[in-house]
Amino acid sequence: MKFNCEKVWCRMNQIRKFTSSEDKMRFVIDIARKALDQGELPIAAAIFLGDELIHYSHTSEQQDKRYLVHAEQKVLLEVDQMGFDFKSRKKLELYTNLEPCLMCLGMAISCAIGEIYYSVEAVEDGAVDFVKKEYDTRTFGTSNPFTMPQIVKGLLRDQSIGLFREFVERYSDGMGVEFARSIYGSYT
After folding, report:
1. Predicted TM-score of the model (pTM)
2. Is residue 76 a contact partner of residue 106, using CB atoms and an 8 Å limit?
3. Strand order, beta sheet including 44-49
4. How many helices (H) and strands (E) does the chain have?
5. I need a surface site. Which of 7, 18, 105, 180 has the fewest CB within 10 A?
């Protein structure tokens, strides 16, 4: 099913403006809860331009019977097709309740996202520290458009950790349980 982003974007922005980083992350956590209620890992992402929601999604491995359906990947692919110019892309903010993996962080860099906000570190496959260290050790020419986005971590961390704990309690033998356990287990 193709997501009609434009229709949802217009409808959502008539209803609600997102005035703070916490408000944006609360929205992402609400979407992650909907994923959890559908039997999916509770991971969601949204892209904002200022106080406007551009697109959002959540993981859908169970529904799609695929593994390459990360929330960040889905929103980045959709936004990439919207025709934002480079200057506008650098103003885009990616919010996700879990630290992006190497694939999704690379996609955000290639999409020229300006800022990434996430709730909780992904101890098994989070890539922010690794990529930041690589960027810090390399010398790029001034014309390199692929810069590391500004990163803000820990936003509403406890709420996201609670979703992963709840996932394990509900789906004790399902797909993704060990991964979810690794998320909240490192905080207990």
Report:
1. 0.89
2. no
3. 52-58, 44-49, 92-98, 115-120, 150-153
4. 9, 5
5. 7
